[in-house]
Amino acid sequence: MCGIVGYIGQSAVQEILLSGLEKLEYRGYDSAGIFVVDRMGNSHLFREKGRIAELREVVDFDVPAQMGIGHTRWATHGVPSIANAHPHQSQDGRFTLVHNGVIENFQELKATYLPDVALTGNTDTEIVVNVIAHFAKNDALTTKEIFREALKVVKGSYAFALIDSKDPEILWAAKNKSPLLIGVGTDFHVVASDAMATIQLTDQYVEIHDGEMVQLTNTDFAIETVSGSVINRAPYKATVDAADLEKGMYPYYMLKEIDEQPAVLRRIVQQYQNSAGELEIPNELKQAVQAVDRIHIVACGTSYHAGWLGKHFLEKMAGIPTEVHIASEFSYNPPLITGNPLFVFISQSGETADSRQVLVKIKEWGYPTLTITNVQGSTLSREADHTLLLHAGPEIAVASTKAYTAQISVLAILAATLSEENDFALIHELGIVANAMDSIIAEKEQIAELAEAYLTDKRSAFYIGRGL
Ligand code: GLU
């Protein structure tokens, strides 16, 4: 799953799409492409394997286009190649589609609807765009109806952005289990898999929920469920600070994010302090947690490791037995659930697909849920009963640093606010930790020299300690 940017408005679209995709580059991708429609209604498709910088070389910036879609691909079906890069077009050239996600019934779709269509690549996405074209054979259907008929038969995860070249005044989108947002401007609209891609253009965003389709023009947007109910949803202000996204003086985001840790820690303490200076979590959440007799932490990767420290805090400070589960293993090895459990989901992005799958199950079972995440309005945050935010600011590097330390800190705060003696001790401790981080960061040159001297030719390092 990688990135999507779509735009319909008044400005030259090529640069908007490319710089939007560049904002999502850090996620990793193997190929990229954009599709634009010019003022005369002519279509232009540009795709390249490799970096966006290479895509830039082949894009024609002189085409006067003000609507288009762009994509960075992380291959799931078919090798990284120009033929498999998105956008994908239907055989007749009418429809152009970008897609993040995985279509589960792609083989069945191909056999049912496309027995005579010669595909140019090996992606599930190319099958979907041709299924859309298949439904368009019925002249009586509008584009919306065509798109809807296709969505009804497509199974799997997707964020789609679609252009029907017969009607290039409209940009279409749909979402199921892959992130996608609408961005609202004064005389334009965008769709993006992450607000970060388009935050320079607008800070007003509207959520798209699973099973919804969207119609966008320069001036309007309309959301409907695939089954046809009209949805009214107001925009919210996205709080990503554009300055946070620039790596400034740093050669790598990871170095910037390591250095940000003391500031993040102090920000977290501030955010969780009440007017009396005590640590506090929302009362509703506090009551919900006090009613449980066991906590199940569900997470993946780095967040899973933070979960183990969370177990330590919750058992030692709050006296609540806590188990930690890897989200992707949960359905194969569900724990024995007794009494009144609480399920806690930890995810930097709030979009971790495996954790989300468990959350859906737990909600079906009717147990209370809490998400600890860095991203307000993310899927896991929206769908859980409660959310605690990390306040770490966007984490761009794939290797987690400040989000991890933020997770540990928020878990400690959660445990402390539940403990009998929720006093000022933890605030004091976290202050000491932030200062210690400052000192370590101040010595980073010396530490780099030591690492160079002792670690560069070693395969492993063992860190030995006890307890926290
Ligand atoms: N499944 C699609 C493909 O392999 C989309 C991958 C993505 O999310 O980037 O092309």
DSSP summary: helix tally = 15
Shape: globular
Beta-strand proportion: 15-25%
CATH superfamily of the largest domain: Aminohydrolase, N-terminal nucleophile (Ntn) domain
CATH domain fold name of the largest domain: Glutamine Phosphoribosylpyrophosphate, subunit 1, domain 1
The major β-sheet equals:
8 strands, antiparallel
- Rg over CA atoms, rounded to whole Å, is 24 Å
Enumerate the spans where pLDDT stays under 50 for 5 or more consecutive residues: none
Mean pLDDT: 93
CA-to-CA gap between the ends?
A: 36 Å
CATH architectural grouping of the largest domain:
4-Layer Sandwich
The CATH top-level class label of the largest domain: Alpha Beta
The overall strand count is: 20
> How many separate structural domains?
2
Structural class: alpha+beta
Helix content: 25-40%
Distinct ligand kinds: glutamic acid
Cross-sheet strand order for the largest sheet? 3-2-4-1-10-9-11-15
Question: Summed up, what is this model?
Answer:
The chain is built from 15 helices and 20 strands. The chain has 468 residues and is of the alpha+beta class.
How would you characterize the overall build of this protein?
By secondary structure, the protein is α+β, with helices and mostly antiparallel strands. It has 2 domains: 3-243, Glutamine Phosphoribosylpyrophosphate, subunit 1, domain 1, CATH 3.60.20.10; 247-454, Rossmann fold, CATH 3.40.50. It has helices spanning 13-23, 52-58, 106-113, 124-135, 143-153, 253-259, 261-271, 283-290, 301-316, 327-330, 353-365, 379-383, 402-418, 425-442, 444-454, and strands at residues 3-8, 31-38, 43-49, 65-73, 88-89, 95-103, 156-164, 171-176, 181-184, 189-192, 204-207, 212-216, 221-225, 230-231, 236-237, 294-299, 322-326, 341-347, 369-373, 386-389. The strands form 3 sheets. It has an 8-stranded antiparallel sheet, covered by helices on one side. A 7-stranded antiparallel sheet has the order 5-6-7-8-12-13-14. β19 (369-373), α12 (379-383) and β20 (386-389) form a beta-alpha-beta unit. 44% of the residues are buried. The site of glutamic acid has 16 residues, from β6 and α4.
